[in-house]
Amino acid sequence: MQMLDGALVEPDAAGCCAGVGGSGPGGYQPCASAPTTSGLIYVAATDEALHAFTCDRHAVVLRLPRPLTDDDLDELARRASAGRRARSPS
């Protein structure tokens, strides 16, 4: 996770990219709400605009937010699948 304008975010998340208070590293964990919005997160340190997803509550962290499309749902499924493969024992 990284800080973006004071908000903790994980742009590559397979769900809502926002971090919330909890028991994860640094006292934060990913938001568990289902994503409803797609948009961009601009990372000034690397001058990158990254495609990310959020729930309704966290949509304010996105630039150019819009409702999810079928392509977005495919991307979320791809990210979830990649995350499962990364966690699977070899």
- Along the chain, the helix and strand elements come as EEEEEEEH
Strand order of the largest sheet: 6-5-7
Rg is 13 Å
Q: Please, how many domains? A: 1
Which term fits the overall shape? Answer: globular
**Helix count, DSSP H or I runs of 4 or more residues:** 1
Query: What structural class should be given to the helix and strand makeup?
Result: alpha+beta
Instruction: Please describe the biggest sheet, giving its number of strands, its sense, and whether it closes into a barrel.
Output: 3 strands, antiparallel
Oligomer: single chain
Question: Secondary-structure blueprint of this entry?
Answer:
Elements (H helix, E strand, L loop, with lengths): L1 E3 L2 E3 L9 E3 L6 E3 L6 E7 L4 E7 L8 E5 L2 H18 L3
Antiparallel strand pairs: 1-2, 3-4, 5-6, 5-7
Features:
single chain, about 90 residues, alpha+beta, three-stranded antiparallel β-sheet, two-stranded antiparallel sheet, about 20% helix, about 35% strand
What does the model show?
The protein is an alpha+beta fold and 90 residues long. It has one domain. The protein is 20% helix and 34% strand. It has 1 helix and 7 strands. It has one helix spanning 70-87, and strands at residues 2-4, 7-9, 19-21, 28-30, 37-43, 48-54, 63-67. It has a 3-stranded antiparallel beta sheet, with no helix packed on it. The chain has a two-stranded antiparallel ribbon with strand order 1-2. A hairpin with a 6-residue loop joins strand 3 (19-21) and strand 4. The two termini are 25 Å apart. The mean pLDDT is 84.
Short description:
The protein is an alpha+beta fold and 90 residues long. It has one domain (2-74). It is 20% helix and 34% strand.
